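User: Fold this, then the next.

Assistant: Folding the first:
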Amino acid sequence: MDEKNLEREIKNAINKNTDDYLEDKEEIWSHIESRLDLKEQKGNGALRINKKSKRRLRGVLISAAILVLIFSVINVTTTGQAFVERMKQYFEPEKHVVTEIEGKPEEQEVILHEKADYVIYIDEERYKMIQEGDKDLITTKEPLEERYPEVSMTISQVVDKTPEQLAQEYSHELKTSFATVKEIESVTEPVEGLLVAAIDGSEWDSRVSKIYIISNGREGSFVFNIKYFLEAAEGHGARFYHMLEEFQVVQP
């Protein structure tokens, strides 16, 4: 089911008279959850949203109007309240997240950055975003010593090329400067698209490049060019990965 049909079904389910469509509020929540592919964790009643559903929620349900409709039709259950609170988090200008860095849980405060065509949360304690021409560059807040290879994530949009076209181009380009370039891979995390990965050796300071490419929802693509070095894979590499999980395309 595409996003427009999904949104339409949810609105219809909420707006219809509950006696005609579903017998009680528990069935309403069950219906909504089934449409969103949500799963209730057994034992404590906590609502768990898988990552694919998160992207769908952000793309379809990040709308204050939807929240108003939900509250206007039903008395929210404990599980429903948790669901709505989870949805509200996507609007927050800043939030606390817990991620696994170097094998240990780490709490971070991330800040919302809103661009004309996308939004992303950034760990501003360690990183900063600067604009370089038509690209946005996320790099370390404090410059690294010269002995370290570049650590950064560049976000750019190519409006007239598909992810498949760009993946082939980047693969050929990386082969001219990296010892090992992996086969182009389809991925669903941290974003849904294609990955071109390369590494230039096995030393602590060997350069690593990961280029994620996703559709921009039209005829073009977003490109995320991530650079770090081998020893930083579980540090900077993991943090860029988690930031990218929060990326969301904004349609004009």
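Now the next one, as you asked:
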Amino acid sequence: MTTAGNPWGWFLGHLLLGVTAQGVCMGATSVLASLTTPPHSQPWQAALFLENEFFCGGVLVHPQWVLSAAHCFQKSYTIGLGLHSLEADQEPGSQMIEAHLSIQHPEYNKPSFANDLMLIKLEESVPSSDTIQDISIASQCPGAGGDSCLVSGWGRLVNGRLPKVLQCVNISVVSEKICSELYAHVYHPSMFCAGGGQDQKDSCHGDSGGPLVCNGSLQGLVSFGQAQCGQPYVPSVYTNLCKFTDWIQKTIQAS
């Protein structure tokens, strides 16, 4: 059995390369051939800001609610929706909305790193538009492995710099057997693994809480991985959202 060292080496993710077109990243196989996501092709993508500094990703799952990783918790946030660039002051079609209520899953970190999700309530609902749309959560859990999915975010690039615009990559789900062996000392059914191919496509520092979309539905949230992202044969870990559909629905209804 192989176990990975220090899987909590990063909690904030990043994409090593990517370009997307309505759910498909047509990226090259080399991290040196990074391409840019067409604007607003991931209209559910959210950006979390604290004192005007971007720090985590998120996903719009309801007109007034954003999902993100529980380890991104803060007392208040500014949530950016409809963004392509994080540098634009007033990007057409975007909104910046305050949020002061966030609810971590009650079993977060029980055991360590498990159940890594939270809901953030926006101060106001956002209408659906060409640039801002919510996404449905997958009702089915990932299969035995091999499903192609898309992960997106504004995390660090392979050169260590932050991208100017939203990035994405296509990665494949890894079997539960491989995932549980690689992360044996922290693995929990609330997790699943994706990525780890030889092409170095991965999520890493800056993408935490961002979406992993499979077959048009939100399958996971970026959670954690190795200190060095993009290692061949070492996938990263995502929150397994199919396990939490009841909690998400009940929390939204109750709040």
